[in-house]
Amino acid sequence: MSESVNYEKIMGNFRRHGFEASFFKTGTEAAGYVASLYSGRAIGFGGSMTLRQIGLFEALSERNLCVWHHRVYSTEVKRMARHCSVYVSSANAVSQTGEIVNIDGDGNRLTMTMFGPEKVYFFVGKNKIAPTLEAAVHRAKNVASPKNALRLGAKTPCAAKGDRCYDCDSPARICRVTFCIPESGLVISIPASSLIIVRIGTALSTVPLRHVFSQGTLQFSQAISGREKDFSSKLRAS
Q1: What CATH class does 7-131+181-237 carry?
Q2: Per-residue burial over 199-237, b = 16 or more CB atoms within 10 Å of its CB, e = otherwise
Q3: Closest C-alpha among 58, 47, 55, 6 to residue 26
Q4: Residue 197: beta bridge partners?
Q5: Domain segments of the chain as ranges
Q6: Are 116 and 108 in contact (CB under 8 A)?
Q7: Does residue 197 have a pLDDT over 70?
Q8: How far apart are CA 63 and CA 44, in angstroms?
Q9: Ranges 2-16, 44-58, 79-93: which has the least confidence
Q10: Fewer CB within 10 Å, N or C, the chain?
């Protein structure tokens, strides 16, 4: 994406579709902005190299309880993020016309950005901006997904080279769920979403930490509620 891209026009298109939209020159500025908005909250993270690259987890963890399966890897942790009141994610692609495209292996990130949290933030680097919805879908399918499959070591045709989608039926494919947020009534269902556009390059290809987290979802939900209140009380007293 050229530096001459009209960010104001892009943000205007997203605003017409029901989003709040902000632009930052660096990922550090974007992370700092969102971190300044919250304290004592439970914040869930979607899988994203962009979020890792800009240091969002570290920025938010200073004053909040953050839940991210990139830090403690298990499907259970993904489920635990459902109990958070704020959710942060990236996108596989966005269009200049104001649509977001994401592809997931199990849909945890997509469901959280559609409904549940009080507030959802999408952090999008300039490399993910495509001119049209069709081009955004193409990028998500043929650029972002193969690179993610390669990074994760998936046993799929696209992971062999990380070059494009092969429309495979592999049990290990990471593109089981595709979701586009277009100019439609669907956007009305997520009025509390914000698009954060930052001028950063290609995301880092760091392999997530893989551990097992055994605490049950209900227990974690109760723990989040209790820790949010305790954290908020301590912050107010400080």
Answers
A1: alpha beta
A2: bbeebeeeebeeeeeeeeeeebbebbeeebeebeeeeee
A3: 55
A4: 23, 124
A5: 7-131+181-237
A6: no
A7: no
A8: 14
A9: 2-16
A10: C
Residue-level length of the chain: 238
Distances (CA, A) of 175 to 52, 61, 110, 194, 229: 21, 30, 12, 24, 38
- CA–CA gap between residue 147 and residue 163 (Å, rounded): 7
Residue 1 confidence class, pLDDT cut points 50, 70, 90: very low
What Cα–Cα distance (Å) separates residue 197 from each residue in 95, 145, 148? 12, 20, 21
Contacts of 219 (CB under 8 A, 6+ apart): none
Summarize pLDDT for 107-161 with one digit per residue, the tens.
Answer: 778 888 888 888 889 999 888 999 999 999 999 999 999 998 888 889 999 998 8
Closest C-alpha to 98, from 6, 189, 181: 181
